[in-house]
Amino acid sequence: MPSETPATAAAAPPAPPKAAGGFGAGVRLASGLNVALLFAFAAAAVVFLNAIVAKRYMRFDWTSGGVFGLSPKTKSFLGKVTKPIKLVVLYPPAGQGGPSSDVHDLVREYELASPHVSFEALDPDRNPKRAEEIIRSYNLNPEEIRTGVIVDHLGKSKWVGHSKIFEQDFSGGFQGGGAQTKFKGEDQLTSAIVSLAEGKTPKAGFLKGHGEKDPNGGGEEGCAGAKEALRRDNYEVEAVELKGKDSIPAGLDFLVIAGPRGTILPEEVHLVKAHLEGGGKLLVLLDPSWEGRTLETLRWTRTGLEELLQEWGVEIGDDLLLENVQNGPFLSPASRAFPITWRSSSHEITKSLAAFNRLMVADVRSVRYDDKGRGKTTGEAILKTSEGGMKVTDLVGFFGASQDMRRLLQYAETLTPEQHPIGAAVEAIHPASNGEKARLVVIGTSSLVADAGTPKTYELDLFVNAANWLARREALLGISAKDPTRVKFTMTGGQVKLVFWISVVLLPLGAFLLGGVVWLIRRS
Amino acid sequence: MTATLAILRREFLSYFFSPLAYIVAAAFLLLTGFFWYLETSWLANPQIAPQLNPVSHTLFSGVLYIFTLLIPAITMRLISEELRSGSIELLMTAPVREGSVVLGKFLAALGFFASLLVPTLAYVMFARQYATPAPPDMGPIWAGYVGFLLVGGMLLSIGVFVSAFCKNQIVAYIFTAALVLLFQLIPTFTRVTTESDTWLYKAIAAVADHINMNAHFQDIGRGILDLRHILFYLSFTALFLFGATLTLSVRKSR
């Protein structure tokens, strides 16, 4: 702070006489150089010291819950890793706090815990070329380049997306993407590393031949997005044909039947049945299905799987579910695209999406789990509509009314809104399975995986979760999610004002007045 | 050691007999208080609070920039005043080593800086009083105060170093503020440039990243005391104090 006496040239003492002649100037130069060199050596020592400690250092986590440390499970596993693992962090550079920081900090802990773990932090704005390479190498969507972590192990990779890393709360609306409530990064990254390090690539088979969604196709009939989502989760995907075969191809971890339109032949259903009874895993996505050229001839159709599913306690409804919105049902007979507000259960498949309860789907039918007290299977409803779900069973009445909005609304009034189950997960051990537990997931729509319609994000997450449950890859480790311990203040308006008066007025004013008193004392 | 303690005592007390020290304190408390009031009103707003960082981040965000303005004001007088008034000649001819002079003055400034932080504990008390569903985690908050002392120590050492060069206190203030700002701005090099694979870019980026004073503090403010961060602040503090000592020794030799 400035001196109280004015700094004037007159007040300054006379300058010391300058050294005379060249010899004095030389000595001064040498002295100056000597000092500069010494300072340069000291600076080099500082750089050297910092460089050494950058490689070998210790960290002390002062948070009460050890929020930033890795769990013993992860450390123990990383201690056994002998091959290189690369983590590519797709979050933009960490600012102060926030989700990006959480992920960057976590990944740094992995790097610290094992010499075989390295990480690359990608900033797509500053390095668009590298971003393009990453998108190409790992088959990402361009919008995914800003959220997620890629785990790469010896050429195999898994993409861990934002919705897996953070639990989000959308209760306050969708603006801003929802608040992060839990940080599950460690569980997800370690699970991904473990699954890659296991060396086994699970295989999913998509049934074809009955108008199912094609994993190798695009457009209206394709589900290439679902295939890509599985591939990013380290699955192999292949199309499977059962006609003329003796059994389900060996080596499949689970079979997917995604929206068959035609009838599945009895001999094919028999193979699927044998697959399940042998402890196999099956994912069925069944759309509501009807036929008829005229209004009068409309009738519900079946795929041939319904009886088999019933044996496993899953009842498929001959119905079409609609979502009741503010002014009646959201109806669009031309596209039959109805948004359904989903109510998820706490099942492994849906719990990570519990907070995100709105998925866009089209053509949904009811899927009810009911073992009828036989005790042959255990299962539960994993997905339900909102309380505003409306069930159409009368095709003639519905499509007859759908030509005219007034009649349609009248028709809607005859439907009673209630919550309908639309998905079930079932387990059972069949006597013929040698103790291997069969798993079955049935969902009343294939639009979850369809390339057509609205872009899929959480819908595909749900699909991959179902695949992981079937392949028994869910919660590989069960490391607890970490709570970011975000707090809020519960204050009245008066208390906020009190904080203002104390922080902004009283404390500074007190210091100022004290300075005034000191000034007065010194003056007197 | 005795000389250091004597200088420390004299300099430390002189702060409290200077009305301008209180003006610095008032300005510091006004700015931090205003930041705190803003954060309090946000945290008390149910719409905004869930989006905010933990309270320790909130408490410390922005304070580093306040240091940029105020720390040069604490140090600008330290040696410049001695140079201007000529009393440095007396000090240099006394049986006191240059290192003791620098260390004594630095520790006095650090003591005054630490005393500026004491009133901010009122903010912590507010946080404990009003935070829900539970009081904030105190670990990161105490770590943040340790971080303040480390950052403050480094910035004060820069001020002492510059002060050893300048007879004019205003010049010392400006140069110190500029150097401090440089430590905060150089790291933005890696944010505003396009990445390149050249070794020169990588070397500059590595250095720029490492001297990112705010990034080192960021971890500490989250409750992580990392040896790298501690060493960064301590080693640069020692470097600038060494530089100040060298500067004084050159003056003495002349």
List the helices and strands and how they pair.
The complex is a heterodimer of chains A (524) and B (254).
Chain A: H1 21-55, E1 59-61, H2 72-80, E2 85-89, H3 98-113, E3 117-121, H4 128-138, E4 149-153, E5 156-160, H5 162-165, E6 166-169, E7 179-183, H6 185-197, E8 203-207, H7 224-232, E9 236-240, E10 254-258, H8 266-277, E11 281-285, E12 290-291, E13 299-300, H9 306-311, E14 314-316, E15 320-325, E16 328-329, E17 339-341, E18 343-344, E19 358-360, E20 367-369, E21 378-384, E22 389-392, H10 395-401, H11 405-413, E23 421-429, E24 437-443, H12 458-470, E25 488-489, H13 493-523
Parallel strand pairs in A: 2-3, 8-9, 8-10, 10-11, 11-24
Antiparallel strand pairs in A: 2-4, 4-5, 6-7, 12-13, 14-20, 15-16, 15-22, 17-19, 18-21, 21-23, 23-24
Chain B: H1 2-16, H2 19-43, H3 55-60, H4 63-75, H5 80-85, H6 87-93, H7 98-117, H8 121-130, E1 131-132, H9 138-163, H10 169-185, H11 189-192, H12 199-210, H13 213-221, E2 224-226, H14 227-253
Helix pairs in contact in B: 1-7, 2-4, 4-9, 4-10, 7-9, 7-14, 9-10, 9-13, 9-14, 13-14
